[in-house]
Design goal:
The protein is α+β, with helices and mostly antiparallel strands. The chain has 18 helices and 33 strands. The strands form nine sheets. It has a seven-stranded mixed β-sheet. The longest helix is centred in the N-terminal third of the chain and has 28 residues. The N terminus is likely disordered.
């Protein structure tokens, strides 16, 4: 096996590799891998401070390889893909591998989170290095046993071979001896060439898939403890409401009810401890039924005026007034717009959206003898520990936090309000395990929503049909100059950096509505608005959107981003655009009547995606017939099966947001939607065939949970225009009957 030494890849502090003997015999290997601040920043981590990644691998005497999965599994596949990286470089057989879910322990595991499609880029090199180091130690142990040079030995499927003498030995047989060796420096171990991969690049079923199909208890709602009681938590019917008083006597007399208690929150939406009334019963149904017997007075004064209609009127006024805070100004867009041969303007908007994961928010907590034990499906559990300390004064050192698999997250479980609420109830009833479970209505009405937004675009076209000036006045929510969570702007989105004269500006209005990150944060909305408007620009310029994009991208180069995010690689962008045009036969128009094709491109979370949608329009009905996707997420697809699942899921999510009618509407801070009847999700019959084509580049692999979603929405709305001549400038799609 031919190997090249691994490079440190920017890891500029010493990696600590520890080996120890397993109880009963075998090798336990622990790697603590420092990440410099620039590596975290490049991968989109929230902190600029240096941190550590870690990997834990053990080889038992029977050859079983156990790899600790430290990150939350929310359906993105990291519980399978990250161990694949270790196992391939270890050169074991995948059937020998067992995956163990880690509890939350920042000192031991470093960052444990799931969000931003960062797991693959942050772990690609460290996980492989750890597997290669374990292999090197096993090989060295066999070489000492046989008194031969380690260079004479090869490995395959968990065995070590000495071809000269025909001897072989299983990893488990030398694992204990390897535990006594000094581990190598990770930046010196040899890594495989991609052509030598035996596990990476194979389509593998998720390690939890069989358990999910069989209904095994792996989700947060499956947690069962002796003596456990069940809780619901009633909060104000409008965002921003506070508890005044509660008459709880009738609820206390309801069947099965054990405790009813008002809880005063801290007024901090980030920690999630809203004012409320907890009802604890012998089962959840009885606790939920007892809600109707509560008589609660709420102060809803802060919620007045926070209505969808009011927000829309304020946005219209802000766009009519112009101005706003300049976020980016290149050249002199005002003068160039005035000098343009043709000017085009349009407004676009999109609503608040709920996450609506299939598993509602839940958490199980037990507080006894000053310590808290929690079972939670959290995407950011370490943030949850901080929230517990802020809201309840429980230090992280006093908390044991078990990660359960999440039944969907999409960014919702990056906020830990359900964890804090469960802990507050458990702290009030020491020694008793409490499972808090939100109803579907709770989940829809108490979300951290994707914020709505409004865009006023204008573009100038020159005499030769070129785009010479562009502006976008973005109206959203925030205080002062600071947007609310997930309402920030992408200063690098096309055509920024591709034309000389451009302005991005922003106006904000206050809101009491809690907001948060939804799959492909900000990109899921900004791409719809910008790529839909650029489709209008292309038409006015006498071309189509893909040709306009290729013209703007120009030669292969990197366009620096103004906000320290990765630069736009125009070559990678060109490649995915050209690929999707090829696989979709873009120039061949659909044969079906009232049909059309739409295109869109976007780069987010380090992934480059171009997509084409074919759709037909019949009155107010839209049918999507096929979606083509071309994506570049680097040099290697770790698990092709998982990767395709992520792309298909992203496309279905995007189509559902646009076509199913997803929108959160407010009246004086109260969410009007409550369940899947008025906040519908995508359905199987409306899911079209999805064809995926990969474009491999020479860049390190990146994540896939998010970047395939943004382009499908404008590709759809552009297809609707091509089919019907109706321009969709507002989401969700609501066409009028002819």
């Amino acid at each position: 096996m031919s190997h090249e030494p691994a490079r440190a890849g920017g890891l500029d502090r010493r990696t600590i590799l520890k080996a120890s003997l397993l109880a009963g015999g075998g090798l336990a290997l622990e790697a603590l891998i420092p990440l410099p601040a620039r590596a975290l920043s490049a991968s989109g981590a929230k902190s600029a401070a240096g941190s550590e990644l870690s990997a834990f691998v053990s080889i038992a005497s029977d050859g079983t390889v156990t790899i600790v999965s430290k990150n939350p599994e929310i359906g993105q596949g990291v519980k399978t893909s990250l161990p694949m990286m270790v196992a391939d470089e270890l050169d074991c057989d995948w059937s020998q591998v067992r995956i163990s879910q880690a509890d939350v322990d920042q000192k031991r595991y470093g960052d444990q989170s799931a969000g931003g499609s960062t797991s693959t880029p942050k772990n690609w090199l460290p996980m492989r290095q750890t597997g290669a180091a374990a292999r090197a130690m096993l090989v060295q142990a066999a070489a000492l046993k046989w008194r031969v040079s380690a260079g004479e030995l090869t490995t395959a499927k968990g065995r070590i071979f000495h071809q000269a003498t025909g001897r072989s030995v299983g990893y488990g047989e030398v694992a204990s001896a390897a535990a006594a060796l000094t581990p190598p420096e990770l930046n010196t171990v040899a890594l495989k060439d991609p052509g030598q991969f035996t596990i990476i690049g194979r389509p593998l079923v998720g390690v939890d898939s069989a358990g999910i199909v069989k209904g095994q208890p792996i989700f947060g709602t499956d947690t069962r403890l002796a003596g456990m009681l069940y809780a619901v938590y009633e909060v104000a019917p409008a965002h921003g409401g506070r508890l005044v008083k509660a008459n709880i006597e009738a609820a206390k007399q309801a069947p099965g009810v054990k405790h009813v208690m008002p809880i005063t929150g801290n007024g901090n939406a980030d920690t999630g401890l809203a004012d409320g009334v907890a009802i604890v019963a012998s089962n959840w149904w009885l606790a939920n039924q007892a809600r109707a017997k509560l008589a609660v007075e709420w102060d809803l004064s802060a919620s007045k005026g926070h209505s969808t209609s009011v927000y829309r009127a304020k946005a219209d006024a802000a766009m009519a007034a112009g101005g706003g805070i300049d976020l980016r100004v290149d050249g002199d867009p005002t003068a160039r717009l005035a000098a343009a041969t043709k000017r085009i303007a349009a407004r676009y908007d999109y609503p608040f959206i709920a996450h609506a994961p299939m598993e509602p928010q839940n958490c199980t907590a037990r507080y006894r003898e000053g310590r808290l034990e929690i079972w939670a499906p959290s995407q950011a559990p370490q943030d949850g520990l901080e929230a517990l300390q802020t809201a309840l004064g429980i230090a992280p050192a006093e908390v044991t936090l078990h990660l359960t698999r999440a039944g969907g997250g999409f960014g919702r479980r990056l906020l830990n309000d359900y964890m804090v609420q469960a802990a507050a109830i458990a702290k009030a009833i020491p020694g008793v395990p409490i499972q808090l479970l939100w109803s579907r209505e709770d989940d829809i009405r108490r979300d951290y929503y994707r914020p709505g937004g409004w865009h006023s675009f204008e573009a100038g076209i020159g005499a030769n049909g070129e785009l010479i000036a562009f502006s976008d006045h973005f109206v959203t929510f925030g205080a002062g100059n600071t947007p609310v969570r997930a309402a920030d702007y992408n200063l690098a989105q096309p055509p920024a950096g591709l034309i000389e004269h451009l302005r991005f500006s922003q106006s904000m209005m206050p809101t009491v509505v809690t907001t948060g990150w939804l799959r492909a944060p900000r990109s899921n909305a900004l791409c719809f608005a910008s790529q839909s408007f650029l489709d209008e620009v292309a038409l006015a310029a006498g071309t189509d959107l893909p040709r306009l994009m290729l013209s703007l991208l120009g030669e292969r180069r990197e366009i620096p981003a103004p906000d320290k995010r990765p630069p736009l690689d125009t070559g990678r962008a060109r490649d995915v655009i050209e690929k999707v045009l090829q696989v979709s036969n873009w120039t061949q128009r659909p044969a079906q009547a009232n049909s059309g094709k739409g295109f869109a491109f976007y780069c987010s979370h380090r992934g480059y995606f171009a997509e084409v949608v074919e759709a037909s329009v019949n009155g107010s009905d839209v049918a999507v017939h096929k979606v083509w996707v071309a994506g570049d997420v680097g040099s290697q697809i770790v698990n092709p099966m998982g990767a395709e699942n992520q792309v298909r899921g992203a496309v279905i999510d995007g189509l559902g947001q646009a076509l199913a009618g997803q929108a959160i509407e407010l009246v004086d801070g109260a969410v009007q939607q409550s369940n899947f009847d008025d906040f519908p999700l995508a359905r199987i019959p409306s899911t079209p065939p999805i064809e995926i084509a990969w474009v491999k580049s020479d860049k390190p692999p990146t994540g896939l949970g998010e970047p395939a979603l943004p382009p499908v929405i404008p590709a759809l709305t552009n297809a609707i225009f091509a089919a019907s001549g109706t321009r969709v400038r507002s989401l969700p799609v609501r066409l009028k009957s002819a």
